[in-house]
Amino acid sequence: MPDHTDVSLSPEERVRALSKLGCNISINEDITPRRYFRSGVEMERMASVYLEEGNLENAFVLYNKFITLFVEKLPSHRDYQQCEVPEKQDIMKNKYKAEILKKLEHQRLIEAERKRIAQMRQQQLESEQFLFFEDQLKKQELARGQMRGQDSAVLSEQTDGSSLSCFSTHQNNSLQNVFADQPPKSDGSDLADHSPPVNRALKPAATLSAVQSK
Q1: One of this protein's Pfam families, by short name (predicted)?
Q2: pLDDT tens digits for 170-197?
């Protein structure tokens, strides 16, 4: 038998489960019918209170128990015919009313169950939509974080490249300055201008004799 607390049941199935819950009652031959009648009065009163409060489930279950007990079960009690108590007359009058109320409650309970299921599905849909949007926001935030990381890496590479370029330019300028400070190499004319003087005393003796004879 389906459990009446199972919220996945359809309205009709859940009401049938509540009906079976109300019908699940038995009598004990050792308990006098008088006690059952007195309990029935209290049962009917509590069902009316639940009905006034709008607690349809409890009212429906109690009315089912009331009808099952006093229409189906208790008449088979061995002392039922000999029992004449005021409560019995009240029960006999109220059992027809209880049957009518049970039928009305049956329909009202089905309508209430349909509304409850529709509301539950709406809440489930809203929850799924919220989780979907939350997941999308997380993915977007993760993508933005990855893009920021890539931009930082590119900027770091550009910064390192600029520093290296500046260092190379500075090194080239330094080398140029070194070469510019060195004196230029001498060509052939410079060698002629700076030739050592001739020492005439070193000329050959023949040349010197010729000069003296003149």
Answers
A1: USP8_dimer
A2: 555 554 554 555 555 544 444 444 445 5
Alpha carbon separation from 180 to 6, 93, 174, 177, 197 (Å, rounded): 97, 129, 10, 5, 33
- Tell me the pTM: 0.47
Query: Is residue 136 a contact partner of residue 90, using CB atoms and an 8 Å limit?
Result: no
Q: Domain tally for the chain?
A: 1
113 is in which domain, residue-wise?
11-136
Tell me the torsion sign for CA atoms 49, 51, 52, 55.
positive
Tell me whether residue 63 is in a domain: yes
pLDDT tens per residue across span 111-163: 777 777 777 777 787 888 888 888 888 888 888 888 887 777 666 666 655 55
Task: For residue 50, tell me if it sits in a domain.
Answer: yes
